[in-house]
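Morning!

This is the sequence you dropped in the shared folder:
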Amino acid sequence: MRTICRPVLVLPVLVALTAGLAAQPAPAAPQRPAQTGQVQRPEASRQALEGLANVRFQADVRVFSTMAALNLAGFDFESAGHEKSPARQALRQALTGVSPDIRARLQAFYAEHRRNRSDIDQLASYLSLALLLGNAPDFVLAVEKRNVPEDVVPILGFEELVAELYVKGNLGALWPRYYAVYEAELASYRPVLVELIRDTLSYFKIPPRIVMDRQIVLIPDLLGPKNIVNARNVGTSYHVILGPVDKPGDNKIQLQHEYLHFLLDPLIEKYGSLLHRYENLLNLAQNQPNIKPEYQNSFMMVVTESLVEALILRLNRPPETEKIDPALVSLYRRGLIFAPFFYRAFPLYEKSDMSTFPSYIEPLFQQVDEGKIREDEKWAAGIEERLRAATAGQRQEAAAQEESARKRAAQRELLLDAEKLMRGGQLQPAREKLEELLKQNDSDAHAYFYLAQISSQEKAFDKAFELYGRAAGLPTASPSIRAWSKVRMGAYLASREQYAEARRHFDEVAAMSGELDGAKERAVELAKQLP
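The structure's back. Tokens below.
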């Protein structure tokens, strides 16, 4: 599962940081990649990438340097089932010669500031810090300390170690090599962005257009764990930091999430006042078992994320309609209590003459019904109960299938043991095995057939004839067992001079099709010998 973190930096930070970013020139791509297999992106490709409306692609030396320092400091987390990316492995190898002193101080800082937080939370904080820094080589904090987000405050000072590592670890010489790789990673995202933007704008019924005051900034992080996406608002810029993936399409949902925020945030800010009278519903959201901490005290974040996630489900709804209700229940239990209500309202927009989805936001918010949203608590509980019942039924069915398979295996073992004993001439022990098998399954045609063979070897021909008849008459009998039983019965009848009945059995076998293990040929041969 991918993780997307979305800390929102406060407005004073945003203004200062956005100005700092605008002043930073992108580092020049090297004329020739310094490592074999790294492909430099053509200038024409750069122009095509930057032609996407309000989407900026940025290989960021601040993120690169911060993550290099974090790896050296001891951050070793990797997503389950994955190996560290080639870039991460190569960078770690390149830093093996860093002085023990800077390595020790980085490790001490990281260990001291973990504060029992998860690796993912730690990663989000250090990436947030990276976006608050000025450019290389100084990496000076570009905002006043009073405007630093709460989760970044405890790790202030790490930027000084990043700056020291940049110089002493020769990151300035390494960066041009990795820049080519980072640029190639960004280029691979273009078809994904084109597709999701096209699909989203098609649903919104609006054309692509340049929005002068906002943008999405995509930044690769090839030194972090795989399949992790971090997103944060920086002023009017939506920064999306993309960890390594095998296929860029794997991140489509996370990218669509940010693009929907880009489209919807101004509209929610404009019409959100229509929902203020429902702020008491925040208590309902807070009572949900899986609510994220960042939703706990923000009613409008609950509204916004409910709308975004409901739209993502609508735009990517599974072909199996029975999966939609469980997905909506999952959103509701995450504290996104408006998601089911919004989702049910989308078909009205789709069928209406309303020109665009943005024009639908105001009537959508006007339609909000507190009673229906509270009723969704019972609806969700009902869906969960049905899912539990279905799951319990599936577990019971699986247990029954497992027990049935165990019994079949035990019966098969008895049959194999009986075959082995018969080949060794131990007829009585073989009979006991077969009789035990029939106690467990009285419709096993093989068991009757082998018992008939034992009776025949003991010259109990009447008993053998009866047992062959039972074997041939069972629905579970294979064509071979049925055919050979009929042949043996025909031979027995011929020995009793009941030639007409014997011929009838042989003719039945001769008319059979399929793999009969020579029974058909034997039936034809015996039929010719009849008077």
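Headline: The chain has three domains: 3-28+40-243, 262-368, 464-531.

More detail when I'm at my desk.
O.
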